[in-house]
Amino acid sequence: MNWELIFGQIKWTSFVFAGMIENPSLSEAIASGAGSIAVLGALATVILLTVKGWWVPLWRDWLTSVDHKKVGIMYIAIALVMFARAVIEAALMRAQQLSATDGGGFLSADHFGQLFSTHGTIMIFFVAMPFITGLMNYVMPLQIGARDVSFPLLNAISLMLTMAGAIVIMVSLVVGQFSTGGWSAYPPFTGIEFSPGEGVDYWIWAVSLGSIGSTLTGLNFAVTIYKKRCPGMTLFRMPLFTWTTLCTSILMIFAMAPLTAATVMLALDRYAGFHFFTNGDGGNMMNYANLFWLFGHPEVYILILPAFGVWSEVVATFSSKRIYGYTSLVYATMCIAVLSFAVWLHHFFTMGQSANVNAIFGIATMIIGVPTGVKVYDWLLTMVGGRIRFSTAMLYHINFLLTFILGGMTGVLLANPGVDFQVHNTLFLVAHFHNMIIPGVLFGMFAAVQFWFPKVFGFRLHEGLGRASFWCFAPGFLLAFFPLYWLGMMGATRRTYMWSNPDYLPWLALAMLGAVLILAGFALMVTQIVVSVRQRAQLAAPLGDPWDGRALEWSIPSPPPAWNFAVLPQVTSQDPFYEAKKAGTAYRSPASYEDIEVPRNTATAPLIGLFACAWAFGLVWHIWWLVIVSFVLIWAVVIARSFATDTEETVPAATVKAANEAFLAAARAAPGVTRDQEMTSANRGRAIPEALEGRSGTIASGAPVEALS
Amino acid sequence: MSLSERLHPGINLAGTDPESHEAAEEVLFGFWIFLMSDLVLFAVLFATYAAMSVQGIAEGPRPAEVFDLTAAFVETLLLLFSSFAFGFAMLEMKYRENRRGVLLWLLLTGVLGAAFVGMELHDYYVMITQHAAPPQASGFLSAYYLLTGTHALHVSSGLVWMAIMAVQVAVVGFSTPVKLRLMRLALFWHMLDVVWIGIFTFVYLFGVAS
Amino acid sequence: MPGSQGGSVTLRGIVGLLAAAVPKIALPKIALPAIALLAIALPGAGFAGSFLEPAGPIAAGQLSHFGVISMLMLIVIVPMFVALPIVLYRYRRGGKGTYRPDWEFNWGLELLIWGVPVALVVALGTALWRQTIVGDPYRALGPDPLVVEVVALDWKFLFLYPEQGVATLDLLALPEGRPITLKLTSGTVMQSFIIPRLAGQIYAMAGMQTQLNLLADETGDFTGRNTQYNGLGFATQSFTTRVMSADDFEGWVATAKTQQAGLDAAAYARLLPPAVVNEPVIYARFTPGLFDQIIASFAPGMAGGHAGHGPQAGADTPAAITAPATSHQQHDHTPEAAQ
């Protein structure tokens, strides 16, 4: 038999452990260790699933599910797993830079190159994207009073494609090398001439899978918001998180296509000898830069807008007050979404365009700062006249306002071509985008987890550990990244595994300290989740409204039933649930119930994901039979599915009624808690609205927080 | 509801079926959005072609040296007539629910579409063998093959889809999902016309004229 | 070049940054001492490789622009840092602020939060436009510039001096006070060329030519480097820019011409394999038109020449494609034409 016919270009030396055997060094040992962790992690999962007998529930209740809530949870699970890998990679890189002056250190240049490439690729495509997508998946349909997204199966397929991409990138830890071209993979360096081998191909196919998944997600969410809002939920009554979801979805629809085109062209260059971005023969890498950033800049807003939505929800809820300037925030969000397509050139001011072109794009970039600034001040004004509770989510918000505005300042600096000429490609730039993405997006997602966790699982997260985690994350971020601004101004370039300037050392040490704090914060966050699960009886809030919430998602039980709303709500204002609580009309039994149709679980999506994963792996290693077989199988599944007719099942009205009436009775019977008891075990999820309580009496200052246990 | 209201353009499943209009709205709207995203992809490919057909010639042939306008014109006619035939298939579906009629028109659409793809493959063959113009020859040709190839790939997948729909019409008949799928296929097919008109004008006519 | 001057340099850098901004805007009185304090607190840091200590008008302009923009941005940043703690304290649960749960809009405030950023962007945009035009890397800084052709290679830079007829590897010798025009291209992947103390960066791309104009008004050795990742040797891809007085420069050229080595097409071909250069190399002569041949080897249609340096017909490289040197084509191979 012909080895290459069966295994393509895989050789035994492709496995990461071979490097350790052939050429032992610390760098190789770390690579092998990471590979081992990936393998052992997978093995441990398999063993756990087998021992516990969880395979069947996993398949039946999760992987085959098309329920937007479960899809959302799985997205976030992917994000957290991938975050663990990418944050450790970041710490390794910092440690390397700190320990290396003039050639020291423990990582080889090549290993370092792979680390910054996987770190960036994973953080953007397999942490931030799944995190926001999962959150939008879970929350948005609940906020608009819908029973699911418009295309539940498509939603599950998006998830499985993203998961396939994530698996491909995890496989690269064990089999073969990853690209060293960074997350933006600029050719011609990533072309076949300068980067032979499988590394760039891993990047291309992992990113392509994620990109297709995101396009479908955007389409799905946009249609959902346009078509599935409950009666009375006009556009200008939608919660702001839903608005930002809409803007992000529109951006996904338009922005992912250029990325797909760019990755396909790069693939054609590499696999078939085309000349899109090659040196010579009419290829031109400047086209790649344009295509990539035509995606890449809107991508920044794809990530940040849902986080903005989270901040709007968090600040209004924990200030017990209406959002200030709702309309203003909506228009600002839309302005940002539209303008985000008009600034991509600022990623390459240094490519030699005329000064006029640079100036126009620089000014366009600054103009985005206007709606962003408006939003920041709207959030500040939301707190004015409120009663602010310093919950973990709110702490993240306060931290966000202060640090994000500094990131905005450096962003405006970078929008100036003259400044960009100096600090482009330096750690100043690295500090800037981490300054936007960490306090903005990542902490936004962390705040969202703190905020919506009780909705998803029916119990609150341990507040003390949440704050402890915050107090590691927030200063950790400042320490890890503010020194990088200074280092960048001193001329330290990005993607550099060692410098020879000893003056950098103290700053690198500070950054390392920050990285350690961030790791500690992550460890505490994991601890928080574990502890909360174990104490779920004390932390339970099944009645659905632990924070005195405002939008529709808080009006239903926690966790919500498969059908979300027993009867589709009728909305007459913004903040419908809050208004209902104030008017005393919340928790009323509906006049009648009807049968509800929910989609059946189906193996379609996981099968497509599985074959897509095999397809990508085959492409990376030139295993052509696998490519053909899995491609045919993907479409066979799709076609087979189109012949299925029995795709929905009916939940009888009696079942819905029994469940809902039980919930409503429990909610009405519950005494309800004031905000003083919010963080105590008295909080079962039935809130006495602050506005009602406030009129009748005074408030004790300082809410008690349960002790760390 | 008056007849004219029930027969509003666009998403008529049938003359007397207001319930399924509602069902149609979401999927068809979703498909329009998908088409929009697909058009963004084509826009990107057009833009790439626009740049590469000027700056990416290198030592390869120029557009005017490799394009056969006659073939492109015939291809245009084939594709437009196939859309025309699809229009009749949809009318048969809406007003007569006539399986035989729909299948015959679909067959005609498919044959014309397949002829289009066949001719395009022949064009490629001629370019590669007679003009030494494979996609590897220059950036311009890479962009040309990618743009027209993506379109041809869309047409081909449309043909596969059409075959499956023919089976479903024959086996299942005109259930609401089948009708909705046919309507989406029609939208898809017409969009490919629009894209092709762009290609014909922008790639072939401009290419030969310049 | 590790800086050893210590804290005083740090202070100079930061105060320089501020001083650059002071003439243009009224600096808040508290800002100066605050930042000076910060500067003293900073550990010793040398700016030998940084625009914080500019050695020419371009870098100085960039530094002062950095200061101007930073100061202007304080207009939106300071209010947040002042107002947020006050709001948090006053409106905390149990605080003294009046609870107004339904307050959601005020036209005055609305005008303020939209108006101030708009006005600020007008100011920032004006400053940006002016600085971008003045600091345009393509704008010549005076008559009779010294032209140096730069070829980015893995992992080194080749400098060709058409006027002097000498060439160097990883050493850029420049005369003080004379405008310099660097013309850049790449013989390999895209790179980004920078000499921070003199001017900002510009990409060097194969088959294309970009330009960087600069002027040095101080003598000394300044580090220059590539900032765009291009493989294993990236971290060490730096070179020395040696600025000397006009007379010294003449002397340097004369010495260079006495060197043994010359650079012809074959010698250039030997430079192409990726390698780090430990010691600068000086070539007494090079094949005229080499720069254009390198561009032409990637983009034959775009080979143009600046006056006097047209491609040499019959030269023995595959790059030697004859192409007419017309002004139109000269324009064609700048990236702008390809945008």
From TrEMBL, chain A:
Biological process according to GO: aerobic respiration; electron transport coupled proton transport; respiratory electron transport chain
Domain Cytochrome oxidase subunit I profile: 62-572
Localization terms from the record: Cell membrane
Keyword set includes rRNA-binding: no
Membrane topology note: Multi-pass membrane protein
Gene Ontology MF: a single term: cytochrome bo3 ubiquinol oxidase activity
Source species, domain of life: Bacteria
One Gene Ontology cellular component annotation held by this UniProt entry: plasma membrane
Signal peptide: none
Transmembrane intervals: 29-51, 72-95, 115-139, 151-175, 202-226, 238-268, 288-311, 323-345, 357-381, 393-415, 427-453, 465-487, 507-531, 623-640
Pfam family, one: COX1
Annotated family: Belongs to the heme-copper respiratory oxidase family.
PANTHER family according to UniProt: CYTOCHROME BO(3) UBIQUINOL OXIDASE SUBUNIT 1, CYTOCHROME C OXIDASE SUBUNIT 1
The protein's name in its UniProt record: Cytochrome o ubiquinol oxidase subunit 1
From TrEMBL, chain B:
GO cellular component terms given for this protein: plasma membrane
GO molecular function, one term: cytochrome-c oxidase activity
Domain Heme-copper oxidase subunit III family profile as annotated: residue spans: 1-208
Cell compartments where the protein resides: Cell membrane
Protein keywords: Cell membrane, Membrane, Transmembrane, Transmembrane helix
One Pfam assignment: COX3
Membrane topology: Multi-pass membrane protein
Biological-process GO terms, alphabetical: aerobic electron transport chain
InterPro entries assigned to the protein according to its UniProt record, in alphabetical order: Cyt_c/ubiquinol_Oxase_su3, Cyt_c_oxidase-like_su3, Cyt_c_oxidase_su3-like_sf, Cyt_c_oxidase_su3_a-hlx
Transmembrane domains' residue ranges: 27-49, 69-90, 102-119, 152-174, 186-207
Family statement: Belongs to the cytochrome c oxidase subunit 3 family.
Subunit description: Heterooctamer of two A chains, two B chains, two C chains and two D chains.
Biological function: Cytochrome bo(3) ubiquinol terminal oxidase is the component of the aerobic respiratory chain of E.coli that predominates when cells are grown at high aeration. Has proton pump activity across the membrane in addition to electron transfer, pumping 2 protons/electron.
Name the record gives this protein: Cytochrome bo(3) ubiquinol oxidase subunit 3
UniProtKB/TrEMBL annotation, chain C:
A biological process term (GO) from this entry: ATP synthesis coupled electron transport
CDD domains in the cross-refs: CuRO_UO_II
Chain ranges passing through the membrane: 30-52, 64-88, 109-129
A Gene Ontology term for the protein's cellular component: plasma membrane
Gene3D superfamilies noted in UniProt: 1.10.287.90, Cupredoxins - blue copper proteins
This protein's name: Cytochrome bo3 quinol oxidase subunit 2
Lineage start: Bacteria, Pseudomonadati, Pseudomonadota, Alphaproteobacteria, Hyphomicrobiales
Main subcellular location: membrane
InterPro entries registered for this protein in UniProt: CcO_II (IPR045187), CcO_II-like_C (IPR002429), COX_ARM (IPR010514), Cupredoxin (IPR008972), CuRO_UO_II (IPR034227), Cyt_c_oxidase_su2_TM_dom (IPR011759), Cyt_c_oxidase_su2_TM_sf (IPR036257)
Topological category with respect to the lipid bilayer: Multi-pass membrane protein
Residue ranges constituting the Cytochrome oxidase subunit II copper A binding domain according to the UniProt record: 143-255
Domain of life of the native organism: Bacteria
Listed SUPFAM superfamilies: Cupredoxins (SSF49503), Cytochrome c oxidase subunit II-like, transmembrane region (SSF81464)
Domain Cytochrome oxidase subunit II transmembrane region profile, chain residue ranges per copy: 43-139
Family as reported in the entry's similarity comment: Belongs to the cytochrome c oxidase subunit 2 family.
GO molecular function terms noted in the UniProt entry: copper ion binding; cytochrome bo3 ubiquinol oxidase activity; cytochrome-c oxidase activity
Subcellular location: Cell membrane
Keyword vocabulary terms for this entry: Cell membrane, Electron transport, Membrane, Oxidoreductase, Respiratory chain, Signal, Transmembrane, Transmembrane helix, Transport
PROSITE patterns the record matches: COX2_CUA (PS50857), COX2_TM (PS50999)
